[in-house]
Structures are given as C-alpha cells and as structure tokens.
C-alpha cells in the first residue's frame, strides 16, 4: 500500500499565525515523508515547547513532546531503543541554539542517526518577540526594548566546525527545495542539521518573505559539500547572499553503528533477565 499525504493529516486545530513560515515547513515535511514512502507508524517526531515544536501536533504520527530545548536527549534515547524508527526533531532557533545548545553539540559529536529541523525565525515567537540566539546584533525587539548588543550564533559555522555529518539550509517558502533537503537529511546515516529560514510575520518585520526571496541564493553545482574548509568559508564570509542547499556532508559511522553493531538491533528486542535486575535491589535498600 502506497503512502499518501492524507495519511499524515491531523485533526488538531492549528494555532499558528496566518502567513507563518511554519506552514511551509509542515507541508515540506509531509511531502518528504511520503516521497520516502514512510508510513506514520515508522516515524517519530520529537519536540519541546514553542511555535516550531507545535508541528508534530499537526501530523498524525508518533510524537514525543518534552521540555524546551531538551528534544535531542529524548530523541537519542528513542533512536537507541528503536533504531528502525525514522526520528526527526523539530525545534525553534531558541530551543535548538539557546536552551538546547549543549545537547546539540553532543548529538553532533556522537553522530546520532536522526534529523534536527530548526525553524529559524530569529526571534522567540511564542513568548512575544524576545531576542533569540540568531537575532542580529543591533536589533530592537519588544523585549528587551533596547538595541541588542550580543552577536548572533552562526549555527551553520558551528555545525561545520564540529564535523556535523550533514549540514543544510532551506527556506520555508521554497518548498520543493526543502523537500529535497529533508529527504537527503533523513537518508543520511548519522546526525543531520537542517536550518530552515522562516519569516515570523508577527514579530519580525525585517526578515520577511520578500527579504529572503531577494537575498537567498542556491548553492551552485560548483559547490563541493565534501570540502569542509570551503563550506566553513562559505557560511562565515561577509555577504548579503544567504546560501541554500546542502552545505557540508561527511560520511562516518553513526553512534548506533558503533554502539549496537552493523545490524543495529533494537534494544526493545533484546532478551530480558529479571533475575539480573533483582540482584541490584539490595544496593538501594
């Protein structure tokens, strides 16, 4: 039986603002999962708190909702217990690069076989427009009502510097390209980061759809995603052009392959010996 987009259709009422960039990401996720012929029971979406983490609510799929920025540890545990599941994590730029920044670093170095999709709208949308880790220096937000003095995080440069296995950037309004990036990220055997630029139509009047259409530039055929130094240079050099596409890719054994072996047997399928557990009880009495 073939998988249809309707199989992922949820009846949960959507709470996003009209025109929110999250709608494009949701559509791209549906199309990617269908294109990969993944049925809903084969997929787990992990998220935390915020506008971006609401995305799993709007899909008929296995879902784990946890704390803000703590999505990756839960996703890691799920992938180790059930490596046959396709695990995606959805987070905002605040949760992924702020509260969850430490988890991101360790997920990249371990090379966990999952895909992190960051909805990067450069603002904390759910909590009324505070500056996030990717908010540009000099921006005046509703909170604080002063010019931001901190420098923004460059998530692409951070990921490449840590040899993240797959680093890509898309834009929520370019759905066809985003579908291709998500498919490539999911199929990559290891940790994948897809940073998705998405306008926040309520709190950010600078990074609009028109702004991204003007400044985004697809990486050409001459770009080699296997060249780490060139990839790093591409995302750090001063330019008014924002790169879209697969920026860096490195193939190395995933955490599951090294820990569980090439067969990647599920921990949930391993035999249980209750007597071994009973032997531990006296230590805690």
Structure description:
The model has no long low-confidence stretch (mean pLDDT 93). It contains 10 helices and 8 strands. The protein has a single domain (5-284), classed as Rossmann fold. β5, α6 (175-187) and β6 form a beta-alpha-beta unit. α3 crosses α4 (101-110) and α5 packs antiparallel against α8 (228-236). Helix content is 31%, strand content 16%. By secondary structure, it is α/β, with parallel strands linked by helices.
Summarize the structure.
The chain has helices at 22-35, 71-81, 93-99, 101-110, 155-161, 175-187, 209-215, 228-236, 255-260, 274-278; strands at 43-47, 62-65, 86-92, 115-120, 166-171, 192-197, 216-218, 242-249. By secondary structure, it is α/β, with parallel strands linked by helices. It has one domain (5-284): Thiamin diphosphate (ThDP)-binding fold, Pyr/PP domains (Rossmann fold, 3-Layer(aba) Sandwich), CATH 3.40.50.
């Amino acid at each position: 039986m073939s998988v249809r987009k309707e199989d992922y259709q949820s009846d949960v009422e959507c709470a996003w603002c009209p025109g929110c960039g999250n709608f494009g990401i949701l559509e791209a996720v549906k199309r990617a999962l269908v294109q990969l012929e993944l049925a809903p029971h084969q997929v787990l979406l992990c998220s935390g708190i915020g506008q971006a983490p609401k995305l799993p609510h709007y899909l008929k799929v296995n879902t784990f909702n946890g704390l803000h920025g703590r999505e990756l540890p839960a996703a890691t545990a799920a992938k180790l217990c059930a490596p046959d599941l396709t695990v995606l994590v959805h987070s905002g730029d605040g949760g992924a690069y702020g509260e969850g920044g430490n988890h991101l670093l360790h997920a990249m170095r371990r090379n966990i076989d999952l895909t992190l999709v960051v909805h990067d709208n450069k603002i904390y949308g759910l909590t009324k427009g505070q500056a996030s880790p990717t908010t540009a220096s000099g921006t005046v937000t509703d909170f604080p009502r002063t010019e931001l003095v901190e420098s923004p995080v460059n998530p692409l440069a951070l990921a490449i510097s840590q040899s993240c296995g797959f680093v890509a950037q898309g834009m929520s309004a370019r759905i066809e390209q985003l579908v291709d990036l998500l498919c490539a990220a999911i199929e990559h055997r290891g940790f994948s980061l897809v940073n998705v630029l998405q306008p926040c139509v309520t709190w950010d009047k600078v990074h609009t759809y028109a702004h991204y259409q003007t400044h985004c530039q697809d990486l050409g055929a001459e770009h080699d995603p296997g060249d780490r130094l060139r990839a790093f240079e591409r995302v750090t050099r001063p330019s008014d052009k924002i790169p879209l596409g697969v920026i860096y890719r490195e193939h190395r054994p995933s955490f599951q392959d090294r820990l569980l072996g090439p067969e990647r047997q599920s921990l949930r399928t391993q035999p249980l010996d209750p007597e071994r557990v009973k032997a531990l009880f006296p230590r805690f009495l």
